[in-house]
Every structure is written in C-alpha cells, then in structure tokens.
Design goal:
Elements (H helix, E strand, L loop, with lengths): L7 E7 L13 H8 L6 E5 L18 H20 L2 E7 L5 H12 L3 E5 L20 H5 L5 H6 L11 E4 L4 H6 L10 E3 L1 H4 L4 H13 L4 E6 L21 H13 L3 E7 L10 H18 L2
Parallel strand pairs: 1-2, 1-3, 3-8, 4-5, 4-7, 5-6, 7-8
Helix pairs in contact: 1-10, 2-3, 8-9, 9-10
Length: 298
C-alpha cells in the first residue's frame, strides 16, 4: 500500500436507498457533489449497484438481499482500491447500508480499522428484529458479525470491526433501544448517546475519540445526518427531535476528520428531495470543509 502523510482526498458516490425507491437518498451523492463543487476534490465517480426493495427475503429477513450482497462487494472493492492507491475516500451516500462494504474495504487495505459512528440510531437491528428489513437498519450488527453468512462471506469474515474499536456517538431512538441488544451486550464499551453528550465539551469528545481509535491504527468516520435535530436538518427520512445542532456536530466531527489516522469517511441518509432550497447540502459541505481545513493544519 502506498503511504503518504497527506493522502489525496477523493469523492466516491454510492447512490442507494434501501427503501428501494429511485429517489430519496439515492439522489444524495449528486446533490452533495454539487454542494462540494468549489472544494477542488478529486472524484472517483459512482458505484453502479442499486437497491430496489420489494421482496423481504424469508431466510435472511433482509429486503432486496441479493442486491445488497452485490452492492456490498462493489463498495468493498472500490474502497480497498482507493486506499491501496494511497487515496483517502470521502463517500457520498446513499443510505447507511453502504457502511459494511466500506469498512471491509478499509480492512483489506489496513488489516484492521476502527469506526467512529455518528448516528441518531445504533443500527444494530438484525433480519429477524428489524421492523422494515431495510439494510440500513443493520450495518453495525453486520460489522460485528450478526448477519447472514452470505453477507459475512462478502465482507471477508467477521467481525469487520472489533467491538473494542467502535465508538457509537449520538444515538437517541428509544424504540430501537428497547428492541436491540444493549451496546454492553455487544462488547461496545464506548457508547455516548445523545443524553450523555448534552453537557459535554464536544470538541474534547471528538479529540478523545480520535486519539482512542488511533491508538490501534486507522479508523473510519460514519456520519448519518439524522444525528442532527429534525428542526436543524429536515432533509432526511428519519426525523427525530433532540438531536445535535450543526454547531455541535461541527465541534464533534472536525477533530475526527482532521486525524492523521483517518482511513476515510462517509455521509449518509441525506435526502435532497427534501432540501428544495439547498440549505441542507450547503450545511453538509461546510461541515466537511471545516474538517478538510483542519486536516491541512495538522
């Protein structure tokens, strides 16, 4: 693998929506590209596999399971190739179902990779417990090995991310919390839900999380925009109150993106169909830009 102290940032679009609609978050990559047009970033184009929902597989409990398998393999290959070429991927989603493939690609390049998971949900449903069967309900469970064997084969074995290398930040869905295993049961000892972040110095939390994850190698940053409060950021499909403000998210996210140990990042669940004035896309571009600027200063 090519080593560089300042790898080239490169965009990769993964235009998917696990609901299966030809719209919604499937349009996210194009809108985010447009918002980032002035950032001068290299662009690796888009992945090709789409999700079209429909049938819930009776064996796995997953919607459109065969397409999920193909999408996962494609994302894994694209991320692994970019990292092996010494580039740092910024993945424009799409929904959260891209994440297992992305982390498998990072593991291919680095042998092991941690994860800072900024999300309003824990995403630890499984096929038998997910109320929808959508792949976006289940990426963390899949990364920990709690997924059908066909998917684990596509990921190259499990766990893709050891629970000790996973930081969950910002979850706040009480319905999900009542139906999935507690993070402690999964071996995740760094779980800071929205309530625990409420009075915290979020920049310090970001710095601490980056240092913790960097101790054992590289790490990935996942940002689901539903970590934000619904009034602050309405351009997503799973609206919830009491989330982070944009200012709070910038404080938390910037030290993570600035870390020399960053392997890559993704932004997921932005629905530009709900962003008619473009303010949501512009806000995400500013958040990412703050992290990119901080990288140049490290």
């Amino acid at each position: 693998m090519s080593e560089s102290s300042d790898p080239e940032l490169v965009l990769l679009g993964v235009p998917i929506d696990s609901v299966g609609q030809a719209g919604g978050t499937e349009h996210g990559p194009a809108a985010l590209r447009a918002a980032l047009a002035d950032a001068g970033l290299a662009d690796a184009g888009d992945t090709k596999c789409l999700l079209r929902g429909g049938r819930r597989d009776p064996g796995s409990g997953w919607l459109d399971f065969d397409a999920v398998l193909e999408m996962t393999s494609e994302v894994r290959e694209r991320i692994g190739s970019l990292l092996s070429a010494g580039r740092l991927p910024i993945v424009l989603g799409g929904c959260c179902s891209l994440l297992p493939g992305a982390l498998a690609g990072a593991r291919d390049a680095f042998d092991e990779c941690g994860l800072a998971f900024l999300d309003g949900h824990m995403d630890t449903y499984e096929g038998r417990t997910s109320p929808t069967g959508e792949a976006a309900d289940m990426p963390v469970a899949a990364l920990l090995g709690r997924a059908p064997p066909q998917l684990l084969d596509r990921l190259g074995g499990a766990p893709v991310v050891p629970p000790a290398r996973l930081s969950l930040l910002g979850s706040r869905d009480p319905e999900e919390a009542a139906e999935v295993p507690d993070p402690d049961e999964l071996g995740i000892d760094d779980h800071r839900d929205r309530e625990s972040l409420r009075d915290a110095d979020l920049e310090a939390v970001g710095v601490e999380t980056a240092r913790r994850l960097a101790r054992d190698g590289r790490f990935w940053v996942h940002l689901d925009v539903d970590v934000l409060d619904q009034a602050e950021f309405p351009a997503t499909d799973y609206l919830m109150p009491d989330g982070l403000s944009l200012t709070e998210l910038e404080a938390l996210l910037t030290p993570l993106l600035a870390s020399p140990a960053l392997a890559g990042a993704d932004v997921a669940c932005f629905n530009p169909d709900k962003d008619r004035d473009g303010e949501g896309g512009a806000a995400l571009a500013r958040l990412l830009g703050a992290g990119f600027a901080a990288r140049k200063g490290t």
